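Changelog note: in this version the structure field was regenerated for every chain. One regenerated record is shown below for reference.
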Amino acid sequence: MAEVKNSTFMIENVEARYPKLDQPYRFDTGKNSSVPCSATDDNAEYSLDFLMPQATAKALFTAMKSAYGERKQKGWPALSKPTWQKNDDGKFIGRAKLKAAYSGNPTAKPQGYDAQTNRLPDGFRLTTGSTVNIHCELVPYSGTMGHGVSLRLRAIQVIDLAPEMERNPFSKVEGFTASDNPFTAKPVEEVAEGSDDIFGEEAEEEEAEEEKVEEPVVRKKAKSSKPAEEKEDLAAIIDDWDD
């Protein structure tokens, strides 16, 4: 496939989708998804899909036609319209990418900048929904795999960084909610000021009292306070009962 390098183009104020720029990625057919990989792995690349309004798509295609026409080689067919898909909002879905290596030599990954043109740190993760400017190189090509103009990704500028979205495969249904959780810990009642700790000595003493077995009470016979004469008279009366 013949490739001819050409001019660059700035795609401004578009919405980023599924960015893979922090490191090289490749598509894993077994997992049916992109996975991180080494720069020298087969099909390793940096990539970024983006949503652009019709006016931006028209300007980009005009630049692509110009690049193709200026660099067109003998035998190349006329440039076909790009196969950009259109979403429900009427925006076109474009794609810019960069191979992670050429001939076994790793390429410099696309550089990132913030709105004030400060360099973004290494490992920065762009999020889907962010508003960005994309600096790409227009590379015309023609060969057995087709013809067209590649958007070779060189740099991005983050205008508005969207919050990272949590991936949730579920939809809402009737049923349990987190606020209904019966296992939610309840606060322990405060101990009155001046009392012992609920796990302190006072609690131990109460437990000891509960476990204490009541001992039987042994009652002693009270000593008689009657004089000896009254005891003798009583004995005599008892003796009379026997008569």
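Spot check on this record: The domain at 2-160 is CATH 2.40.50.140 (OB fold (Dihydrolipoamide Acetyltransferase, E2P)). The radius of gyration is 45 Å.
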